[in-house]
Design brief:
Layout: E1 3-9, E2 12-32, E3 49-66, E4 69-70, E5 75-76, E6 85-86, H1 88-99, E7 109-113, E8 116-132, E9 144-154
Antiparallel strand pairs: 1-2, 1-7, 2-3, 2-5, 3-9, 4-6, 7-8, 8-9
């Protein structure tokens, strides 16, 4: 069982079928290992000191699929609201356009997942795997789908 997710920026929006979404929280800790002199080594190991500044990074690691879509609400860059058909390659290209700024200066990408429709942040990594899609009875159906791996970091612009 998967879920539908979407990424949008500017006039571009791409919906994907997510096979898995891992939500990760990373807390950047500062560790201090205290020095031990030769005269105090016999007293045993010194405990490492940890400084927790509560600097938590929230990120999503997503594995999803791109396939041919005919649905204006699913994967479109049609700003007129009309229904258009996009191939898997066009959807892939739109996702790359979103990840590389969508022709805009700066700004965050909006990510929708699990009922949250306005998670803002940035795509840190975007990897595509081109794999064959088997339709033996109908060779006219698009034979390509892409598996995509995305790391999305939630945050706001520092500039």
């Amino acid at each position: 069982m998967g879920s539908d997710i979407s990424f949008s920026k500017g006039s571009y929006k791409v919906n994907l079928y997510a096979n898995s979404v891992a939500e990760e929280y990373k807390n950047k800790l500062i560790t201090l290992t205290l020095a031990t002199s030769t005269s105090t080594q016999s007293s045993g190991k010194k405990e490492t000191k940890v400084v927790d500044l509560l600097r938590i990074t929230q990120q999503y690691v997503i594995k999803a699929y791109i396939t041919k879509v005919t649905d204006a609400t699913s994967s479109t860059d049609d700003t007129s609201g009309g229904s258009i058909t996009l191939t898997a390659k066009q959807i892939k290209d739109n996702l790359k356009t979103i990840a590389t700024g969508a022709g805009e200066d700066g700004g965050v990408i909006t990510f929708s997942y699990d009922g949250d429709t306005n998670i803002e942040g940035y795509i840190e990594t975007l990897n595509f795997l081109d794999e064959a899609k088997d339709y033996p009875d109908n060779p006219s159906v698009e034979q390509v789908k892409y598996e995509v791996a995305i790391t999305f970091v939630k945050g706001e612009s520092a500039v």
